[in-house]
Amino acid sequence: MEHKNDNSCNERSCQMCAVDFFEKKDPSWKRKQVILAVTSAVLLALGLICEFLISQYLLAQVFFLLVVAICGKNIIRRAIKSLFTKRRLDMNFLMSIAALGAFLIGHGEEGAAVMFLFFIAEGLEDYAAQRARRSIERLLKLAPETAKVKKDGKEIELQVHEVGIGDVVVVRPGEKIPLDGEIIKGCSSINQAPITGESIPVDKTKGEEVYAGTVNQDGYLEIKVMKRSEEGMLSKIAKMVEEAEKKKSKTEAFIERFARIYTPVVIALALGVAIIPTLFLGLPAGIWIYRALVLLVVSCPCALAISTPVSMVSAITSATRRGVLIKGSSYLEELNKVKAFAFDKTGTLTEGKLEVSDIVSLDRVSDEEILSLASSIEFHSEHPIARAIVNSAESKKIKAQEVKDFKSMPGKGIRARINGKIYYVGARNLYNDLDIQLPEEKINRFESEGKTTVFLSEGKNLLGVIAVRDKIRDASFKLIAELKKKGIRTEMITGDNRHTAAAIAQSIGIDEYHAQLLPEDKLKIVDKLTFEFGSMAMVGDGVNDAPSLAKASVGIAMGAIGSDAALETADIALMHDDLSKISYLIHLAKETSRVIKQNVSVSIVIKTSFAILALLGMINLWVAVAIGDMGLSLAVILNSLRLTKVKTV
């Protein structure tokens, strides 16, 4: 079987079986393998007919040798290369010796069968690798190959690689967005499911970012290109997954080291079986050489070798399809050991977007009038609290009033005139300057609930209080409850004030919180949890939590679709702000561990049993290859591919 050797590619090899799991092969490769397999099967059948039905022994041997020439050419070539170049006895060497020995002792049909079945086994492994990559390949093909570029008032169609940064592309309803960019004209619903896993389209308007491969559903858009095709989100995902494929877990690395010792030991044992009974016990040489050959084949560590990598890759690609990027199998393995989770607050447990939670009238003014006055004054401010008040008024269809003499007082609030009257909107320190008495009882109650208060007054007459809060994600409550059921410790580490942190922690059931922390303080908490529990995970936004994400046993970044830092720093990146994916990750890690244990244990039991049967002369080469090698490898592959179907529990 042909295996390209391109050191520039990001590939991972099963060193025990000399199979490149992540090699990119063109369609002609697949057709060629099928043709070779069918041709070899026909020749093997003709050889068997000649030998056993029409007694044409020499003609049969010709057919058997042709089978070896077709199926075994690359196997034998790699065996020689492994022996003389790498000084290593690999799986190809085992199969080559077994086939050669079978011919020498007059069992050409079994020598041909060994090569044919091993050729098929390699094909199955390659198929598993191709299937594991398929979701990534589909992802890369999502982006269209051409883009409609607007130049000098005309639209011209260019290949995406010809489009430069700053060019404007036109995307109509139903079309795919060709490149990452920013909307400069129009608004639409964008289906981002291929990248984020979101089932509901996201509304996008002028100034917002869009990504290649997503679908414009119902509006005309003009998009300013911000990144070239090779720099976009799809390319980042592909590169990250390829890097993940190169990073082996501890289990995988151990099995590879084990195989380097195991293979020479098996060959030495087979030589002993062939030589000792013949030279020292006077037993028939043909019988014991044949048993030695069967032992060589049945002891092949192929199924054991692929048990971990195929499982890990199946799990990683399954997660990728669900909007979760895992940078390496080692992180998935580590996640299975995590006993504590630390969460950032803003943008992680909460949405990072303020909303109006309470409006309290203090002077016989309606809540609607308070919100109307405050939103009218705050309309031209970009402060997050101002945006929350304006958004609240707009959602209730409260019309803005005409504002004059607008004056911003940084750090305090705003002064403005409406209908000839002077109004103030601002924080506590503004009213301290104005010498206005504030309702301390209500302020204390709101602060104890983690809310921020804003006041509205007409001159020195206090009209009302507006409380805003950072909305807790709906998924936070369920996730924390699930982690507690699993006996996992949960802590919140935030730079926010203690009142807000306490309110959020109590509301969602966090075991412990730490507030008013600097980045270096967060690192100390991560160190403490690691020391106490052995393995811990940090969940943050991937930007201001970057040091903690890097320090944790497993760093999980929220909303990686909008953050380069998240992809660079975190070990696992959630492509959309969906905390429920953490429950899925934990479930996936446990299922992956379970499948690997099944694969390894079954491989060891069957290999050991068949080795004993081989020594007793109770199985032949056909059975050794068809069941003990190819059959077992197929079972391992099929069991591993079940991980692609794992969903959130």
List strands and helices in order, with pairings.
Layout: E1 13-14, E2 19-20, H1 27-52, H2 57-84, H3 91-104, H4 108-140, E3 146-151, E4 154-159, E5 168-171, E6 181-185, E7 188-191, H5 193-196, E8 202-204, E9 209-210, E10 215-216, E11 221-225, H6 233-246, H7 250-281, H8 285-298, H9 302-321, E12 324-326, H10 329-335, E13 340-343, H11 345-349, E14 350-361, H12 367-378, H13 384-395, E15 404-409, E16 413-418, E17 421-426, H14 428-433, H15 440-448, E18 452-458, E19 461-472, H16 474-485, E20 489-493, H17 498-508, E21 512-514, H18 519-533, E22 536-540, H19 546-551, E23 554-557, H20 564-569, E24 572-574, H21 580-615, H22 621-641
Parallel strand pairs: 13-20, 13-22, 20-21, 22-23, 23-24
Antiparallel strand pairs: 1-2, 3-4, 3-5, 5-11, 6-9, 6-11, 7-8, 7-10, 12-24, 14-19, 15-16, 16-17, 17-18, 18-19
Q: Give the oligomeric state.
A: single chain
How many β-strand stretches?
24
Fraction of residues in helices? 40-55%
Q: What is the tally of helical segments?
A: 22
Radius of gyration: 33 Å
Structural class, by secondary structure, is alpha+beta
Mind describing the biggest β-sheet? Answer: 7 strands, mixed
Strand content: 15-25%
How many domains, as an integer? 4
Shape: elongated
Low-confidence stretches: 1-26
